[in-house]
Amino acid sequence: MKLARPVKVAAADSRVRAVCLPSKRLTHNQTEICIATGWGRDAEDGPLAGRLLEARVPVHDNAVCRKKYGHSVHIRSGHLCAGHLDGSSGTCVGDSGGPLQCALGDGRWILAGITSFGSGCAKPGFPDVYTRLSYYLPWIKSKMVRN
């Protein structure tokens, strides 16, 4: 999506703010806070949410998702593995395409991932899989340069 004009930095108390693109690959021990948001269901058999839902999720090494999804999905470098292994919270049906935002140590928030798929809704033992934005940065930047 290309905006007609630059986004103005909003006041700290604003509900709408710009998020930074990642400058490098996010690793599982690089951040303490990542939040997935979406308008999907809050239970696998429930209705779509009437308000924006959020889940604070830990980032894992992709090996965790390879182990869990290896039989059905080939986890690649362009994937990002994140979510609670105990099933306490995560993304759900209808959240695909939503953001995974992570806070860096310097206070900036980055768009680390885009919700791709999971086991349903926070199934114990199965983290969610996101599209890793840093992997696609060269392509994103090439499109941003073009008019």
Number of individual domains: 1
**Widest sheet, order of strands:** 2-1-5-6-7-4-3
The proportion of residues forming helix, as a percent range, comes to: 10-25%
Question: What structural class do helix, strand and pairing data support?
Answer: alpha+beta
The name CATH uses for the topology is Thrombin, subunit H
Main sheet: strands, sense, barrel: 7 strands, antiparallel
Radius of gyration: 16 Å
Q: Based on the coordinates given, report the CATH architecture.
A: Beta Barrel
Poorly predicted parts: none
Output the CATH class name. Answer: Mainly Beta
Dominant shape: globular
Query: Percent of residues in beta strands?
Result: 15-25%
For the structure shown, list the relevant keywords.
seven-stranded antiparallel beta sheet; Peptidase S1 domain-containing protein; Trypsin_dom; alpha+beta; 2 helices; 147 residues; serine-type endopeptidase activity; disulfide bond; Thrombin, subunit H
Describe the structure.
The chain is of the alpha+beta class and 147 residues long. It has a single domain, classed as Beta Barrel (Thrombin, subunit H). The protein is built from two helices and seven strands; from the N terminus they run βββαββββα. The protein has helices at 62-69, 137-145; strands at residues 33-38, 53-56, 59-60, 79-82, 99-103, 109-117, 128-132. It has a seven-stranded antiparallel β-sheet. The protein is globular and about 40 Å long. It holds the Pfam family Trypsin. InterPro entries: Peptidase_S1_PA, Peptidase_S1_PA_chymotrypsin, Trypsin_dom, TRYPSIN_SER. One of its GO terms (molecular function) is serine-type endopeptidase activity. Residues 1-145 form the Peptidase S1 domain. Keywords: Disulfide bond.
